[in-house]
Amino acid sequence: MSKQKLAWYLWAIGTVLIVLSWFNIVPYNIGWVGFVLGLAGSILSWGLRPPRR
User: Fold this and answer.
1) Sorting pLDDT into bands at 50, 70 and 90, what band is 21?
2) Helix, strand, or coil here: 51?
3) What keywords is this UniProt entry annotated with (predicted)?
Protein backbone atom coordinates (compact mmCIF):
# COMPACT_ATOMS: atom_id res chain seq x y z
CA MET A 1 0.00 0.00 0.00
CA SER A 2 1.34 3.41 -0.89
CA LYS A 3 1.79 6.13 1.71
CA GLN A 4 -0.76 8.27 -0.11
CA LYS A 5 -3.43 5.57 0.19
CA LEU A 6 -2.55 5.02 3.85
CA ALA A 7 -2.94 8.74 4.54
CA TRP A 8 -6.31 8.76 2.79
CA TYR A 9 -7.55 5.69 4.69
CA LEU A 10 -6.47 7.14 8.04
CA TRP A 11 -8.24 10.40 7.29
CA ALA A 12 -11.41 8.68 6.04
CA ILE A 13 -11.66 6.27 8.99
CA GLY A 14 -11.01 9.12 11.41
CA THR A 15 -13.73 11.24 9.83
CA VAL A 16 -16.25 8.38 9.99
CA LEU A 17 -15.49 7.81 13.67
CA ILE A 18 -15.92 11.51 14.44
CA VAL A 19 -19.30 11.65 12.70
CA LEU A 20 -20.45 8.45 14.42
CA SER A 21 -19.58 9.98 17.79
CA TRP A 22 -21.70 13.05 16.96
CA PHE A 23 -24.75 10.79 16.62
CA ASN A 24 -23.91 8.80 19.77
CA ILE A 25 -23.39 5.60 17.78
CA VAL A 26 -19.93 5.22 19.30
CA PRO A 27 -18.66 6.75 22.58
CA TYR A 28 -17.11 10.19 22.42
CA ASN A 29 -13.72 8.68 23.32
CA ILE A 30 -13.80 6.81 20.01
CA GLY A 31 -14.53 10.14 18.33
CA TRP A 32 -11.27 11.46 19.78
CA VAL A 33 -9.48 8.41 18.42
CA GLY A 34 -10.98 9.33 15.06
CA PHE A 35 -9.68 12.86 15.47
CA VAL A 36 -6.15 11.54 16.09
CA LEU A 37 -6.38 9.20 13.08
CA GLY A 38 -7.62 12.00 10.84
CA LEU A 39 -4.87 14.29 12.07
CA ALA A 40 -2.25 11.59 11.47
CA GLY A 41 -3.56 11.08 7.93
CA SER A 42 -3.46 14.81 7.25
CA ILE A 43 0.07 15.20 8.58
CA LEU A 44 1.21 12.19 6.57
CA SER A 45 -0.30 13.62 3.38
CA TRP A 46 1.31 17.03 3.99
CA GLY A 47 4.68 15.31 4.38
CA LEU A 48 4.24 13.55 1.02
CA ARG A 49 4.04 16.76 -0.98
CA PRO A 50 7.09 17.61 -3.05
CA PRO A 51 9.04 20.65 -1.84
CA ARG A 52 8.29 23.98 -3.49
CA ARG A 53 10.88 25.48 -5.76
Assistant:
1) very high
2) coil
3) Membrane, Transmembrane, Transmembrane helix
